[in-house]
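in:
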């Protein structure tokens, strides 16, 4: 039973949603409401036509009629139906535009793309922009009682003085991809894959090393001007990350644009969308990068030894990725999780010697727990940290003109 649970955790399989889940979570309420209102207007107009002959033109205009189908009232459902049908068609066009903008690839290409994401090098970056506000004046013209009055307006303008950036150097701690494996993707006709990315730490030592470089970068740049705007995130170097994919080998009929618009014209867009959602399998995949594999001993996964760092200026891959300057805001903070013991791996060639193992594990980012006794967490040994003099993390800066 435990082995099946572990396999379920390590393997991601597409799942077809049930009808109840589709009805609860699909955002098609606007289409459904407009469809029901249109059917109501059509039923109203048909009732007035067949029961009261409101649209026949046989009755004279001077004969006054009473009721909902009287003169004038019989035009209300027709005008309302025209407006609702316009809204309905616009909503159908918006839904079709979202589906057209989604990236569509074959199943084999999807597997290759996911393997490329696993093999890609993560770049955890920080950026800061130093700025201040300058007092400016300008001449404006105001009008009062038809007269033009010149006036001087005082305003404050933001002036950016310097932009700097840095990345997390993980040459010492090591890295490993722990993304779940994909299985049974070819057994489903259509699969929608939602991708997300993040990173975790294997031990407290790797988390401290990350926080040390991050804090040093912000401390070095915060005093360069009055204010500082910061951004941070993670990118995968060498590949274009896409949030959502739609993979299939042959286009099914319910996703064909001609079929979609044929059903939409006859007010059957909502049933077609529900059918498409029920026939489309879903797969949520989190791309996780593990930092700190070099600090784990092959005999234990709870190693949190003292912090050791050396110069990492020869990290050519990270330096090239940083100078490319194509990393945007992708907020992705870390949380440490419990991982199985594995052989240490490293991105760059270097030699590391495992030290004494500790019985403590890192269950959350910045938190320490003990598997045997919670009271023993207070006795965690504190290792001395050498004072920081000059930043060794790779960074760049540029002066704004």
């Amino acid at each position: 039973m435990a082995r099946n649970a572990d396999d379920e955790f390590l393997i991601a399989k597409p799942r077809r949603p049930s009808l109840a889940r589709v009805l609860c979570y699909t955002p098609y309420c606007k289409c459904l409401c407009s469809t029901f209102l249109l059917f109501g207007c059509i039923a109203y107009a048909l009732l007035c036509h067949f029961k009261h002959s409101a649209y026949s033109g046989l009755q004279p205009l001077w004969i006054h009629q009473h009721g909902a189908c009287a003169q004038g009232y019989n035009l209300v459902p027709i005008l309302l139906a025209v407006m609702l049908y316009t809204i309905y068609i616009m909503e159908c066009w918006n839904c079709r535009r979202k589906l057209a903008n989604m990236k569509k690839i074959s199943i084999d290409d999807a597997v290759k793309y996911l393997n490329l994401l696993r093999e890609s090098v993560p770049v955890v970056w920080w950026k800061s922009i130093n700025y201040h506000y300058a007092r400016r004046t300008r001449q404006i013209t105001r009008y009062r009682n038809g007269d033009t009055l010149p006036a001087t307006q005082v305003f404050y303008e933001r002036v950016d003085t310097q932009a700097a950036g840095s990345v997390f150097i993980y040459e010492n701690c090591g890295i490993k991809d722990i993304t779940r494996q994909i299985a049974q993707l070819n057994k489903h006709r259509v699969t929608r894959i939602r991708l997300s990315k993040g990173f975790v730490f294997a031990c407290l030592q790797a988390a401290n090393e990350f926080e040390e470089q991050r804090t040093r970068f912000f401390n070095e740049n915060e005093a360069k001007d009055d204010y500082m705007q910061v951004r941070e995130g993670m990118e995968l170097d060498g590949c274009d990350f896409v949030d959502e994919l739609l993979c299939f080998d042959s286009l099914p009929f319910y996703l064909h644009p001609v079929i979609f618009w044929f059903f939409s014209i006859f007010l059957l867009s909502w049933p077609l969308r529900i059918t498409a959602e029920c026939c489309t399998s879903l797969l949520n995949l989190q791309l996780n990068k593990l930092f700190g594999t070099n600090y784990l001993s092959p005999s234990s996964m709870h190693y949190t030894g003292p912090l050791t760092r050396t110069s990492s200026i020869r990290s050519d891959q990270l330096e090239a990725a940083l100078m490319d300057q194509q990393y945007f805001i992708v907020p992705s903070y870390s949380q440490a999780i419990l991982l199985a013991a594995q052989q240490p791996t490293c991105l760059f060639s270097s030699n590391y010697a495992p030290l004494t193992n500790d019985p403590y594990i890192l269950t959350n980012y910045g938190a320490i727990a003990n598997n045997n006794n919670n009271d023993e967490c207070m006795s965690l040994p504190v290792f001395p940290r050498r004072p920081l003099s000059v930043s060794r993390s790779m960074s760049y800066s540029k002066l704004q003109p």
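note: The CA atoms of residues 127 and 165 lie 4 Å apart.
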